[in-house]
Predict the structure.
Amino acid sequence: MQAVVSISDAESRVLEVLWREGPSTSERVIAALAQEDWEVSTIKTLLARLVKKRAIRPRKEGRRFVYSAALAREQWITTESEGLLGRLFGGRVAPLVQHFSQHRKLSKADVAELKRLIEELDDGE
Amino acid sequence: MQAVVSISDAESRVLEVLWREGPSTSERVIAALAQEDWEVSTIKTLLARLVKKRAIRPRKEGRRFVYSAALAREQWITTESEGLLGRLFGGRVAPLVQHFSQHRKLSKADVAELKRLIEELDDGE
DNA sequence: CTTTGATGTCTACAGGTGTAGTCTTACGAT
DNA sequence: ATCGTAAGACTACACCTGTAGACATCAAAG
């Protein structure tokens, strides 16, 4: 649970697989990462590093391991995005939204969804 | 202008100074970074690395340099936040806002500001 | 002119990261 | 019983990063 250590970009790619597919053998992870075009060896290294960082947990299953995420995706996302918000936007969400809007990165659908979200929050509160 | 290279965390701290204070000598930068508690040498290294990465431009001014940001803050922010959005939230802003709201990271003031922002967008569009 | 202090350059070094090869071992197929 | 193969362990290696010391130089002070 303690996400003290930081997860690198490549490592997070591996974690994403476990979050998506649940506990998996390295074989499964490797298959799921075919798109990344990594050597098998690379993925095994990443798995080993994640184990060492305690971000995933290996469970012996016969001759091989089944790896499961020990770090919750939600928690990781929180850490990452709060980091960015803090560094770039004074820790607040509004300036980020504003930034995106100023750069025309918000589609109509985005705006609609945001509107719905905010209204919900506003009532709910 | 070409932000091809990535700016590290410590480097961005230096860049922030130039963005805030405008073109400055190393002396000025060092003074502005007193809070960071870095050795003078460290800051000089960071300046040198930024020059090499072409993120800042040194202009000879007598015996010393005046450094100015060659990379626009807006651009950097865009790169960074789009990177995060892409990696964590499928590239869309709404899921990020939702994430923050679900984790009670939005104050009343935030919600109000967001609401104002969105309404503006909605009309404006 | 000499000393001193600031300025930029070079060098350093450990730890993280991307990327991957090699080695050992044991299971499954023959 | 044998052998190839796959899984995990170990090793590698270049580059980035954080952090900083050492050195050369030149202008200012005395």
The domain at 1-91 of chain A is CATH 1.10.10.10 (Arc Repressor Mutant, subunit A). Residues 6, 8-11, 38-42, 44-46, 49, 62-63 of chain A lie near DNA strand C (CB under 10 Å from a C1'). The helical segments of chain A are 9-21, 26-32, 40-52, 73-89, 93-102, 108-124.
